[in-house]
């Protein structure tokens, strides 16, 4: 299976701090939308669904397709934290949509629990392995965690092979050469744990973060200035590799509900690579791109008119640039929602034009400024 950077994906866009009801365009940014607290975007509400254990069964997949068409625009997105988003939901349909998600078993009991259940599990877990067991243990002990910043998340990647290197997460339960470690993101090593000490160590590390974080919102950000306690270090994680099996993606993580319904012939594992892994394998279904398709190597946020922060369209340009560089990021504005890592080529929208950044992020100092969209391909 072709390897690729995992730190990419669409549109985990931060939103306002409003607690009840959807966040508004132009509001203060800083937390992640969910199903209970969706984000208002240029095309309506974005309702994010967090699958448990990176899995939706066939009925849930078909049900999500139905809900997307009944209450939204029929567009479903895969995010870089392994979530699903229904776009274009009307405010008046949000309550009924929540009811539908609850019937499918895809709704947390309340908004606070939903916000806490920020767990990314390796998608190729099998019944009884360490990823399955520890993901469930962690989900059952979320109440022991301190208050954490909204985007602070956990990764459980403890199966026989490590899969989620580079996928976003602040505290990571990972496979090491021998056994399992708990590792702080931003530190090269973690502390060895046993089955019965792993979650307690996660809680202790989360508390260490909460006690030391100051203004930091992410673990790696804190570790850039504050040394980690020795009790959380010592052993490096095992090498990483992509899972085997039938893995396919959609450009920019965006698919129509009809494709999701087609895929609902069996259970799906939702990955953080804008791809799904078909449980049970088989041929790659029509509509899914193979992992080495150049379109899957491009990151592009929705841009205008879907995001109110954008002054440029993004995805037509992204399609034009497919294959032009190993990594390309087209961002509607300097926030860079679609990719947090540097890319070989980044185009950042500003006042209806693009700034060109080479080997950097959306907000970095550009090499060229103010390129008209049609000038961009030649400027590369
Ligand atoms: S335009 Fe800016 S705020 Fe909107 S999705 Fe793109 S990067 Fe995020």
UniProtKB/TrEMBL annotation:
<dbReference type="GO" id="GO:0051539">
    <property type="term" value="F:4 iron, 4 sulfur cluster binding"/>
</dbReference>
<dbReference type="InterPro" id="IPR036136">
    <property type="entry name" value="Nit/Sulf_reduc_fer-like_dom_sf"/>
</dbReference>
<dbReference type="GO" id="GO:0016491">
    <property type="term" value="F:oxidoreductase activity"/>
</dbReference>
<keyword id="KW-0560">Oxidoreductase</keyword>
<dbReference type="InterPro" id="IPR051329">
    <property type="entry name" value="NIR_SIR_4Fe-4S"/>
</dbReference>
<dbReference type="Pfam" id="PF03460">
    <property type="entry name" value="NIR_SIR_ferr"/>
</dbReference>
<keyword id="KW-0479">Metal-binding</keyword>
<dbReference type="InterPro" id="IPR005117">
    <property type="entry name" value="NiRdtase/SiRdtase_haem-b_fer"/>
</dbReference>
<feature type="domain" description="Nitrite/Sulfite reductase ferredoxin-like">
    <location>
        <begin position="38"/>
        <end position="103"/>
    </location>
</feature>
<dbReference type="GO" id="GO:0020037">
    <property type="term" value="F:heme binding"/>
</dbReference>
<dbReference type="InterPro" id="IPR045854">
    <property type="entry name" value="NO2/SO3_Rdtase_4Fe4S_sf"/>
</dbReference>
<dbReference type="InterPro" id="IPR006066">
    <property type="entry name" value="NO2/SO3_Rdtase_FeS/sirohaem_BS"/>
</dbReference>
<protein>
    <recommendedName>
        <fullName>Nitrite/Sulfite reductase ferredoxin-like domain-containing protein</fullName>
    </recommendedName>
</protein>
<keyword id="KW-0349">Heme</keyword>
<keyword id="KW-0004">4Fe-4S</keyword>
<feature type="region of interest" description="Disordered">
    <location>
        <begin position="1"/>
        <end position="26"/>
    </location>
</feature>
<keyword id="KW-0411">Iron-sulfur</keyword>
<dbReference type="GO" id="GO:0046872">
    <property type="term" value="F:metal ion binding"/>
</dbReference>
<keyword id="KW-0408">Iron</keyword>
